[in-house]
Design a protein that fits this description.
The complex is a heterotrimer. A five-stranded mixed sheet of chain A has the order 2-1-5-3-4. Chain A has two domains: 109 residues, Beta-grasp domain (Ubiquitin-like (UB roll), Roll), CATH 3.10.20; 130 residues, Alpha-helical ferredoxin (Fumarate Reductase Iron-sulfur Protein, Chain B, domain 2, Orthogonal Bundle), CATH 1.10.1060. In chain A, helix 2 packs antiparallel against helix 6 and helix 5 crosses helix 8. Chain A is α+β, with helices and mostly antiparallel strands. In chain B, strand 19 and strand 20 form a beta hairpin. In chain B, the strands form five sheets. Chain B has a five-stranded parallel sheet with strand order 6-2-1-10-18, sandwiched between helices. Chain B has a five-stranded antiparallel sheet with strand order 12-16-15-13-14. Chain B has a four-stranded antiparallel sheet with strand order 17-11-19-20. Chain B is 39% helix and 15% strand. Classes of the chains: A alpha+beta, B alpha+beta, C mainly alpha. Chains A and B meet through helix 1, helix 2 and helix 3 of A and helix 3, helix 5, helix 6, helix 12 and helix 13 of B.
């Protein structure tokens, strides 16, 4: 297969950046999208051009590192996949493919397609945990039974890989799906109850400080989320936040 | 050999850890605040250790090369985590977990360490549940368990197929809490490029800020390497692209011994290689072997026809299929341990019976499971004489409920429907049991340098059991290192801050800079990737599932030649002081090129077959592994010397088995 | 009364201007004022309140469809003079202002959250059109509202409206005649219909969205709310639009 690639090139945070066009051929339909970029990069190194910088690590859809905006969609046209799980057979021979970094004020571009998503880490640091120290003397794991539907819903929320596709795809660059997934996980479990009010208030405050946009309930995040995290979590966070605001001392 | 003292406490095995903990010298809270600890790597071992040490009051600096600590490759573990909780009342106990782990490791691990692992396993589950890790539960709200390969009890806790992710996010949240408190300073997108020794003790690291490209000096009173395994020496593995040996290898070059580096786990059920540009392999959970039957065509000409696309596997009659695991191991059939299943697949493919384009794949067939489940379901529904189509439909639904996400993942990658046509699988490098040698306290041969998790060698011997890697990472990080690191640091309360202006830091930084500049100014033309791919092929062919003397010697010669070519011909674009992934990769591949040789050397010196290490010279007439306990019941710990990985000196730590009897594993 | 309203507007404006310094652009504080979620709560609550107003307004307008001049004028009189309604009407004006102000602030923040846009953005792939154009639809609705209030509300309060005497001899302002006269102008009616279509799209997303924002979500009831919202967003604007069309055609 052959492709024409329009790729965003940007030398650093200060650089203005521009689209560059490259041709790749000898692409097999079994290749993942990132392997196709590998081919491009080997080609560029051969031509004395700096290879395209992009984030990637596990290449099996779980680490959340890969982050490309392909043909106008986060992680490209596939559903329930990250960029590394997108295969070239999803495209037609001869296609022109536009590849851009995830864009948001809170995700500044580091270089080319690589962005800084440390804002997500800071949101977690604001309260995305249960305050329990390491100890060999905690209550037995089965001491508190948890209803299966709650445990399952908490798990579903907890499967977020923190890739940022929700922010990238949201027309408002809102981080509500990410934040609400963590808030929901703990809101659904008894372990999370003690700090629930402070957690939601602090995490939302941090989210706002990072400069993410507001949720307008378009639902685009849920469609593009590689792990299928539901916007039901956003509703739950809205509920948690409202009650925390009304009752906090 | 006086250098190798494992410092195993005296006394009966079940009391060693308790007594040892009781005698450990403590550091007062006020003094802890004066002590710095560096943790390299933020996977299960690193995150949990960094968080726990910070909770105790130490000043912790944590490093990871990814953009966030949450991305470490522990996140990709699927199956589960073992713990001797005995919730199922099926006879599990600390001793049984200990015994299973020793036996599964083919008697090449240290009893005392493994027993401690089994002891703290239950605490791990309590800790994780308290953190809000959403383990699977049953309808009564209690934690659910499943069973895993090689054991007879259900002791595996899991969170669907994403257990590693949930455990890592738990440890990451604990770490995040300490970062927020200012107890941990996190350095993401930083790579350790050298270890700094002052007066023979580990006192800091040189790290490269991967964004700015600057080299930084960081000092501490102790350094913990939680940097994972080195499976990427094979180029293709189920490891993440960034997983590397650099931190461990730099420590090795500075005096830390590497133990049993040739012990590599090859996982039998991975999606086969599809082409030359493949960058990594994807694991399909071991649980599939519970219901899938593994086969290849009996006749070579059928295999050839399949490879050429002239024949479909479903067209092949039952009598033309060779269910080789069921044939060779009637007692265990498709459920033999990982090493045995992997070798058997390789044997069939080498004999010309492989089934994909490259000839390196076997079938994992669910047709009989679908039929069996379908008939059962029909019976339950009261359907008499259901049509074959109805049986298929019912059976597929049940298989989907059990393995749906795996089947979907397979279909995404291969574009084949595994309900209709058998899956193709092939073994792939998955985990490295070998690693940095550590004593009972997890300290390496360099004072003040510790190794945790997959980075050390201690618990899995020559073969790791499923769902034990997560257990070990968290045991080391939450419950072992916080105690044992304190033992070492108790002597450091008067040391005061370590200056980064010391000549040792200066020297290490200069050496690191020179290494990088050499790459950038090299007049070569070949990208790094090409050398890595070549190294991987040598390793896979000669030091993979089966090894022999001639092949290993050849491999050593080939690797040395490749290393020479690498330094002559490699081209690294870009500059030093910028984000430059090619430069990072060059440094990592340079270290793999040295490690590869040491692995071959280790494999060559271990003249026996055990666990993942299969020497063709040492097999029975039926092709089974022959272990030689009389001569090789030791840990091979290699000391770097003469600036040449090939001249490493072998030290032996004899393995003493006082609590289990050494027997030959048989699955016939 | 007009004075009171102007005072009210002025004080509301003053409140926002004062607070601009503390919540200038990016929401940064916790709780029910200033945070991004708080803005959304106010959007949702005012939006739902305005929906309830739409129903009352529509019921009052129905006499126009039957040509019942007397009922309509009595309704208009009642709405402008009954003390409780007057009190509620200030809440209404406040809601409109708050909904508009918060909407503009949200839109500004949302634009600022992505300073460098995409070269290629395939919005239709994952969200429906109305959800992506709420600010646009809202602005158009606001434009309509200003014209609409000038034509009727302003005229009713301060304009030169002919008087109408009903059967009992009570004298009212004849809003009916003014309304019919306005709707007999084709351009005015077309604008009105267009505005109702725009309002329909605004509600199509907005109605259920308000419930999601308030966190009033439940697997059993949310589908009902969504269905009701779709019905509401079609029926209410369509009925409104039928009035000028009816007048124009008869």
């Amino acid at each position: 297969m052959k492709f024409t690639l329009n790729v965003w090139r940007q030398n650093g945070p200060q650089d203005k950046g521009r689209m560059e066009t490259y041709q790749v051929d000898q692409v097999s339909d079994d290749m993942s999208f990132l392997e196709m970029i590998d081919v491009l990069n080997e080609q560029l190194i051969g031509q004395g051009i700096d290879p395209v910088v992009f984030d990637h690590d596990c290449r099996e859809g779980i680490c959340g590192m890969c982050s490309m905006f392909i043909n106008g969609e986060a992680h490209g046209p596939g559903r329930g996949v990250t960029t590394c799980q997108l295969h070239m057979r999803e495209f037609s021979d001869g296609d022109t493919i536009t590849i851009e970094p995830f864009r948001a004020k809170a995700f500044p571009v580091i270089k080319d397609l690589m962005v800084d998503r440390s804002a997500f880490d800071r949101i977690i640091q604001a309260g995305g945990y249960v305050s329990v120290n390491t100890s060999g003397n905690l209550p037995d794991a089965n001491a508190t039974p948890i209803e299966k539907p709650d445990a399952d819903a908490a798990f579903d929320a907890a499967t977020c890989i923190g890739c940022g596709a929700c922010v990238a795809t949201c027309k408002n660059a809102s981080a509500m799906l990410f934040t609400s997934a963590k808030v929901s996980q703990f809101a659904l479990l008894p372990q999370g109850q003690v700090e629930a009010a402070d957690r939601v208030l602090n995490m939302v405050k941090q989210m706002d400080l990072e400069g993410f946009g507001n949720c307008t309930n378009t639902g685009a995040c849920e469609v593009e989320c590689p792990k299928g995290i539901s916007i039901e979590n956003i509703a739950r966070m809205n509920r948690e936040y409202l009650s925390a605001s009304l009752t906090s001392k | 050999m006086s250098t190798l003292n494992a410092h195993i406490p005296e006394g009966p095995i079940a009391e060693k850890w308790t007594k040892h903990k009781a005698k450990i010298p403590l550091v007062s809270p006020a003094n802890k605040r004066q002590i710095d600890v560096i943790v390299v790597g933020t996977g299960l071992a690193g995150s949990s250790a960094a968080a726990s040490l910070a909770e105790l009051g130490y000043n912790v600096k944590a490093f990871c090369f990814q953009d966030s600590p949450r991305r470490a490759h522990s996140i990709a573990a699927q199956g589960g985590i073992n713990a001797a909780k005995n919730y199922q009342n099926d006879g599990d106990s600390t001793f049984r977990l200990f015994y299973d782990t020793i036996k599964g490791g083919d008697y090449r691990s240290r009893e005392a360490n493994v027993h401690r692992l089994a002891e703290v396993s239950a605490n791990i589950i309590d800790q994780c549940v308290a953190q809000g890790v959403p383990f699977a539960r049953d309808y009564g709200g209690q934690l659910d368990n499943r069973s895993f390969g090689g054991v007879q009890v259900s002791r595996t806790f899991y969170a669907k197929g994403q257990t590693g992710q949930q455990l890592l996010l738990g440890a990451y949240s604990a770490l995040s809490r300490q970062i927020a408190k200012g107890r941990v300073k996190m350095y993401a997108r930083h790579e350790m490029v050298d270890l700094v020794l002052v007066d023979g003790k580990a006192r800091g690291i040189i790290a490269r800020d991967l964004v700015s490209g600057e080299l930084e000096r960081h000092s501490a009173h102790a350094v913990l390497l939680c940097t994972g395994g080195y499976g990427n020496v094979f180029y293709l593995s189920t490891n993440a692209m960034g997983s590397n040996v650099t931190a461990a290898w730099k420590a090795h070059r500075k005096g830390a011994f590497m133990a049993n580096p040739c012990f590599t786990q090859i996982h039998p059920t991975c999606i086969p290689v599809s082409g030359h540009f493949q960058s990594k392999l994807t694991l399909m959970s071991e649980s599939l072997r519970n219901d899938g039957r593994i086969w290849v065509p009996k006749k070579k000409e059928d295999a050839e026809a399949i490879r050429a696309g002239k024949l479909q596997p479903v067209q092949l009659a039952e009598e033309d299929r060779d269910y080789y695991l069921e044939r060779r191991y009637p007692a265990f059939g498709n459920l033999v341990p990982r090493d045995v299943a992997s070798r058997a697949a390789k044997e069939r493919c080498d004999a010309g019976h492989g089934v994909n384009k490259t000839g390196e794949a076997v079938y994992l067939d669910f047709a009989s499971a679908i039929e069996r489940y379908g008939k059962e379901a029909a019976h339950v529904q009261g359907l008499h004489q259901p049509s074959p189509e109805k049986i298929r439909e019912l059976g597929e639904a049940i298989v989907e409920s059990k393995y749906g996400n795996l089947f979907q993942m397979y279909e995404k990658i291969t574009a084949q429907n595994p309900y209709k046509t058998p899956m193709m699988i092939y073994p792939a490098v998955h985990y490295t049991m070998g690693g940095i040698w550590v004593d009972y306290n997890l300290m390496t041969t360099v004072p003040g340098l510790f190794a945790l998790g997959e980075a050390n060698f201690s618990d899995h011997g020559a073969n790791r059991l499923g769902a034990s890697a997560l257990m070990q990472g968290l045991a080391d990080g939450y419950f072992v290192a916080p105690y044992t690191v304190g033992t070492y640091l108790a002597d450091d309360i008067r040391t005061g801050k370590i200056s980064t202006e010391l000549p040792e830091f200066e020297e290490a930084e200069k050496a690191a800079r020179e290494r990088m500049e050499k790459f950038l100014t090299n007049p070569g033309t070949t990208p790094v990737e090409v050398f890595h791919r070549e190294l991987g092929k040598i390793m896979w062919d000669q030091c993979g599932m089966a090894r022999n003397e001639a092949g290993l010697k050849q491999a050593i010669a080939d690797i040395r030649a490749l290393r020479e070519r690498f330094y002559k011909e490699v081209k690294v674009p870009g500059k030093m002081h910028e984000m430059n992934p090619e430069l990072d990769k060059a440094g990592r591949v340079a270290d793999f090129l040295e490690l590869g040789e040491l692995m071959c050397l280790d494999a060559l010196s271990r003249e026996e077959s055990c666990g993942g290490h299969f020497r063709e010279e040492f097999q029975s007439e039926e092709g089974e592994a022959v272990r030689r306990d009389d001569e090789f019941a030791y840990v091979a710990a290699w000391e770097f010397s003469d600036q040449d990985p090939g001249k490493a000196k072998l030290h032996k730590e004899a393995l003493v088995f006082e609590n289990v009897k050494l027997i030959t594993r048989s699955y016939k | 009364m007009g004075f009171a309203f102007i005072l009210c507007c002025a004080s509301l404006g003053q409140y926002f201007c004062d607070n601009l310094e503390f919540i200038p652009f990016m929401a940064t504080s916790r709780g029910l004022f200033g945070s991004s979620l708080a803005r959304k709560y106010w959007m949702a609550l005012t939006g739902l309140f305005l929906c309830s107003f739409l129903v009352v307004h529509l019921l009052g307008n129905l006499p126009l469809l039957t040509g019942n001049q007397e009922t309509f004028n009595a309704y208009a009189h009642f709405m402008t003079t009954f003390p409780l309604i007057k009190a509620v009407s200030y809440l209404l004006y406040g809601s409109i202002l708050l909904h508009t102000f918060d909407g503009l602030m949200l839109a500004r923040q949302n634009m600022a959250a992505r300073p460098a846009g995409y070269v290629k953005y395939h919005g239709a792939a994952n969200a429906n059109w109305s959800s992506r154009n709420m600010a646009l639809l809202g602005t158009f609705t606001l434009l309509f509202l200003i014209i609409h209030m000038k034509s009727f509300w302003y005229e009713m309060h301060w304009g030169n409206v002919p008087m109408y005497t009903d059967a009992d001899g009570a004298v009212y302002k004849d809003l009916y005649t003014i309304t019919v006269a306005a709707f007999e102008q084709i351009w005015y009616s077309l604008f009105y219909v267009l505005a109702m279509i725009s309002l329909g799209f605004h509600l199509w997303h907005g109605f259920a969205s308000a419930f999601q924002t308030m966190g009033w979500s439940h697997p059993r009831y949310t589908p009902i709310i969504r269905a009701f919202g779709y019905g509401f967003s079609v029926l209410v604007p369509a009925t409104f639009a039928s009035i000028p069309l009816y007048i124009l055609l008869t």
